[in-house]
TrEMBL record:
Species the sequence originates in: Shewanella cyperi
Named cofactor requirement(s): Mn(2+); Mg(2+)
Gene expressing this chain: yjjX
Family: Belongs to the YjjX NTPase family.
Cited InterPro entries: ITPase-like_fam, Non_canon_purine_NTPase, NTPase/PRRC1, YjjX_NTPase
Free-text remark on how the cofactor is bound: Binds 1 divalent metal cation per subunit; can use either Mg(2+) or Mn(2+).
UniProt name for this protein: Inosine/xanthosine triphosphatase
Signal peptide segment: none
Assembly and binders: Homodimer.
PANTHER family named among the record's database cross-references: NON-CANONICAL PURINE NTP PHOSPHATASE_PRRC1 DOMAIN-CONTAINING PROTEIN (PTHR34699:SF2), PTHR34699
Highest taxon in the source lineage: Bacteria
HAMAP family: Non_canon_purine_NTPase_YjjX
């Protein structure tokens, strides 16, 4: 009989739900992945503008899911932006809670055009800015800014999927991460 794993994702965005399902299916082969999303508060701005807020938003969403119960894993993804040494970029933090353990990871970062970052500093959300710039509709529920700026060689979903797979490592080998400190 095929085993199953249930996931509760802190979002109703189909891209995030699919990314969680894809990540777990890649890691837990021959396992049925039962995945659903719920609206989950981040406790940060709709468009996080720092690494710290983006990370906190992912953790808050995952912990909210955990408080709802009813799943084996509680997952959240939070997209954000920040200005780094090499310029502005977008990225995501992911958080996974399983059996009272929290694992946090981060996606690769995508450099942002200065005019996009300026619009974000003025209070706009990345998805809306990209929709206006590329004449798209609701791109955050599709390939996202990543898809638009990479000719779909990478997408918002693929970025989340990779980050989640990597964040699963401490869950797969907890004995190796027991004293994990820097």
């Amino acid at each position: 009989m095929k085993t199953s794993i249930s996931l509760l994702v802190g979002s109703t965005n189909p891209v995030k739900i699919a990314a969680a399902r894809d990540a777990f299916a890649a890691v837990f082969k021959d396992t049925e992945i039962l995945c659903r999303g719920i609206s989950s508060p981040s406790g940060v701005a709709d468009q996080p503008m720092t690494r710290e807020d983006t990370r906190l938003g992912a953790i808050n969403r995952a912990r909210f899911c955990e408080s709802q119960g009813g799943a084996d894993y509680f997952i959240a993804m939070e997209g954000g932006v920040d200005c780094f040494e090499d310029g502005p970029a977008t990225f995501a933090y992911v958080a996974i809670v399983h059996q009272d353990r929290l694992s946090v990871g981060r996606s690769a970062q995508l450099p942002l055009p200065p005019r996009v970052y300026h619009a974000l500093q003025q209070g706009q959300e990345l998805g809306h800015v990209m929709d206006a710039l590329f004449n798209t509709v609701n791109v955050k529920h599709a390939g996202g800014a990543i898809g638009l700026l990479t000719a779909n060689a990478a997408t918002r979903g693929s970025s989340y999927t990779q980050a989640l797979i990597l964040a699963l490592a401490p869950m797969l080998h907890p004995e190796l991460y027991e004293l994990s400190t820097c």
